[in-house]
Amino acid sequence: MRGSAFSRHWSQVRNWRPTKAKCVAPCRSLAATLLLAFVAPIVSAEQPDSLAFQRVGHLRHGINTSNWFAQAGDYSVQRLRTFTTADDIRLVHRLGFDHIRVSIDAEPLLAWQHKQANGIAFMGELDAIVKVANQQDLAVIIDIHPDSRFKQSLLQGGEPVERFGMLWHALAAHFAPTDPGLVFFEIMNEPEQSDPYRWQGIQSFVAGQIRDAAPNHTIIACGAHWSGLEDLLQLSPLALPNVIYTFHDYEPFAFTHQGATWTTPAVQPLRDVPYPSTPENIAKNVEQEPTLAGQFFVQQYGLDRWDAHRIDVTLNFAERWSELNHVPVYVGEFGVHRPYAAPVMRAQWLRDMRIAMEKHHLGWAMWDYQDNFGAVTKKDGQTIPDPAVIDALGLTLPSAATP
Predict the structure, then answer these.
(1) Regarding beta strands 376-379 and 382-385, do their DSSP bridges make them parallel or antiparallel, or are they unpaired?
(2) How far is CA 232 from the centre of its chain?
(3) Of 16, 131, 194, 245, whose CA is between 20 and 30 Å from 84?
(4) Maximal C-alpha separation, the chain
């Protein structure tokens, strides 16, 4: 899609808004109609997306390889080859995972798109990892994982969205020769878009660009904001076949993000938060909070009595959305910040999540491989898997766990 047709299409999508609450459904239908000239035929509302359900079968139990091709700042060849290595990818396979979700920053991809030397080197390292993984029969999710600045640029009119679409067109064309059963395209990690209707239009447009460049590959789409379950439940499926839908689940946040410094201030002072939760066992954590807002946050965690049953009831809604829309759903992130969590309780939450996800037919990828949510620890040149985590995930340590 080029020139005036490209601009006209985005002009239609970006200006789409429901004017009144009663108009939401008709307006969504109108948006879908506007997109039909640019995308493949819509999936039947009565028939499951059979190819997407077949493909999601290779995304049953995965791991995120974070702070490697994204979130790092340093994307030199030296760091890309040593932070996580080809041996790590082989270990992932030996541990029993069936796929990796590779977070990829947008900036070095833009450098590659514009044929800059650092971008070309970055893509060369990414190509090598995709090849190693596929040789191990590990599927790879190519996940554009930009910073907030890039995400917020998409709110500044149509031009940034057009550039994002062109980036994905180039990236999908690059990976189009790969095995479509082993390489997946995730449009964007946690879009942070405050307007779900605008995000619906952006995502539909970008999905069309991907499908144009790589017609055989499966696309992974998500809801707006932080890609939570509530965002998924508000999402309308795209007017495209062969799409998997994803959400992230870190609930309850007071437990999974205790001590984290980069997110809501309420979790920062928390240490040794118990799971499961009761009003009684979180009393000491309420006292850790210096503000009333923080105390309220922790008290609510106790009153909510988070346990395996609560997780099961929550994830049931993801399965119901999947059944209602006849499309597969996948949990792209879940995990526990490990520096301040009791290892036994961390493993219990992971186990409860894994059992509930499998019960509700949700493939998953734990966050993450080796960082502060990690399944392994790297120390003195050794890679040491966490036996409790591997067991909680329903996997088995190989006889020689270190590559």
Answers:
(1) antiparallel
(2) 12
(3) 245
(4) 63
DSSP β-ladder status, 376-379 and 329-333:
unpaired
Residue with token string 């037919």: 361
Rounded to 5°, the CA angle 242-248-254 comes to: 170
HSE at residue 68, side-chain half, CA atoms within 13 A, is: 26
Per the domain annotation, does 8 fall within a domain?
Answer: no
Contact criterion met (CB below 8 Å) for 154 and 164: yes
pLDDT score recorded for residue 397: 92
Distance CA 34, CA 403 (A): 52
Q: Are strands 99-104 and 363-366 parallel, antiparallel or unpaired?
A: unpaired
Residue 12 in any domain: the answer is no
Q: What is the pLDDT of residue 258?
A: 98
136 three-class SS: coil
Split the chain (403 residues) into runs of 10 and give each run's mean pLDDT.
39 39 32 38 65 98 98 96 97 98 98 98 98 98 97 94 98 98 98 95 98 98 97 97 98 98 97 98 98 98 98 98 98 98 98 98 98 95 96 90 45
Q: Are residues 58 and 183 in the same domain?
A: yes
Which CA distances in Å does 110 have to 117, 159, 167, 202? Answer: 11, 15, 7, 18
First-to-last C-alpha distance (Å) of the chain: 46
Q: Which two tokens stand for residue 94?
A: 């030996």
Shared-domain flag, residues 278 and 143: no
Radius of gyration of the chain (CA): 21
- Rounded CA-CA distance 219/59 in Å is 13
Distances (CA, A) of 304 to 160, 167, 233, 297, 310: 41, 43, 21, 11, 8
Domain that holds residue 294: 259-304
276 and 177, same structural domain?
Answer: no
Q: What is the DSSP string of 328-387?
A: -EEEEE-----TTS-HHHHHHHHHHHHHHHHHTT-EEEES-SSSTT-SEEEETTEEEE-H
Nearest CA-CA partner of 366 in 80, 87, 101, 72: 101
